[in-house]
Specification:
The protein is α/β, with parallel strands linked by helices. It is 62% helix and 14% strand.
């Protein structure tokens, strides 16, 4: 069904890297979601009012919030497809993360209101009427929501959309909440003498599930905005390309900035033999940058670090310093290692790559590294830059 809709409503639907194609996908998914959620809201709210079921009305309001979320998603796709301009040189794709946050706030608001209504119904019970029509409507809603979850997840993966992945997760949570309401409705029909106000308690359960879904979507949207570590897949892609060039001796200081799908900017250092012709090394760096952009859509800026590769003294000294500083933390590594010899002392200049899990302040780490270096030779002075990796 997803491929059929894509062929009908998305021109050149396979070219998901195109902003126009992504916008068309977003429009298609948003319109489908709005229509289906409004239909579900109308059916459930009508049944909920006729039977007096707070749980069914709560589920209906949840569908109405989903329809509103789809409207926000639709607007975000229209904005994110706008090209870069002077005020936004990296484009507008991050609006999708902002839209996901708005969706999460709406879900949380609905969850709080439904929780309050359900608790009030527990305190002042108002038993609903028992109806097989309710069972039919709720069962149909579950089937529709399962399809919507699959639909959003498939398209979300296809175009790498945070908004659609969030909507798919919300649809799955709707399946659970509607399933709980359906179960309580069946119990009330099959056991008419049951005195427990099960409908109100199911309303509380629906509200809690809605709140949990809202928190999850908020966390997923907040991390890219705050700036998160690059995914393992992006790191692997960059390393694979660099390692295909034997003249690239090492890679470090990798930074990745995600400005939304198709807008990834990376900066990294690549070590090269200092005795190789600088123009040859520069040509290799240019080739790596072009491949990363062409094959993975990564706009990379690579700093070329010339290193000494044939000096046995420096190589041995680097190995000794590395072994010494790893007594501080086995996860530490070194790069940009240089020796500047003097008459009274010699400077060892290098960067120390320290895992984020090591919470020792940078100034204490520098002091500890300098102490380890002095143990090798008191005339050595460590000039250290701390990098967190």
């Amino acid at each position: 069904m997803t491929n059929l809709l894509a062929r009908l409503f998305v021109r050149d639907y396979r070219n998901t890297a195109s902003p126009a194609v992504r916008r068309a996908y977003g429009t298609m998914v948003s319109v489908v979601g709005m229509v289906l959620n409004l239909l579900l809201f109308g059916a459930k709210f009508t049944v909920g009012m006729l039977t007096g079921s707070v749980a069914i009305r709560a589920d209906a309001i949840n569908n109405l919030s989903d329809a509103g979320s789809q409207i926000i998603s639709f607007i975000s796709f229209r904005i994110s497809a706008k090209p870069a301009d002077r005020e936004h040189p990296f484009g507008h794709a991050r609006i999708e993360y902002v839209a996901s946050m708005i969706v999460s706030f709406l879900i949380l608001l609905i969850g709080v209101e439904l929780l309050k209504e359900s608790v009030a119904n527990i305190i002042t019970p108002q038993p609903p009427e028992r109806s097989w029509v309710s069972v039919a409507v709720l069962g149909g809603s579950i089937l529709v929501k399962l399809w919507m979850a699959l639909f959003n997840r498939t398209v979300g993966r296809r175009i790498d959309s945070a908004v659609m992945r969030a909507t798919a997760a919300d649809s799955l949570s709707d399946v659970l909440s509607t399933g709980a309401v359906l179960l309580s409705t069946l119990v009330l029909i099959l056991f008419p003498d049951l005195s427990l106000n099960l409908d109100a308690y199911m309303g509380v359960l629906v509200a809690v599930l809605i709140l949990l879904a809202g928190v999850k979507i908020l966390r997923e949207a907040l991390n890219p905005i705050l700036g998160e570590a690059p995914s393992e897949e992006i790191v692997r892609q960059i390393n694979e390309v660099v390692r295909q060039y034997p003249a690239a001796l090492g890679i470090h200081d990798l930074e990745v900035h995600n400005y939304g799908p198709g807008h990834i900017i990376a900066a990294l250092h690549v070590e090269v033999d200092g005795k190789v012709d600088v123009f040859a090394s520069h040509d290799m760096i240019d080739t790596i940058e072009q491949r990363l952009r062409r094959e993975y859509g990564i706009a990379a800026t690579i700093h070329m670090d010339p290193i000494v590769t044939d000096d046995a003294v420096i190589a041995n000294l680097r190995a000794r310093v590395l072994a010494a500083v790893r007594q501080i933390d086995p996860g530490i590594n070194l790069h940009d290692f240089r020796l500047v010899s003097g008459t009274t002392h010699s400077n060892l200049i290098f960067d120390v790559a320290v895992p984020y899990e090591n919470k020792t302040p940078d100034d204490r780490l520098r002091a500890a590294v300098a102490e380890q270096v002095r143990k090798i030779d008191p005339s050595y002075c460590a000039v250290v830059t701390i990098d967190r990796v």
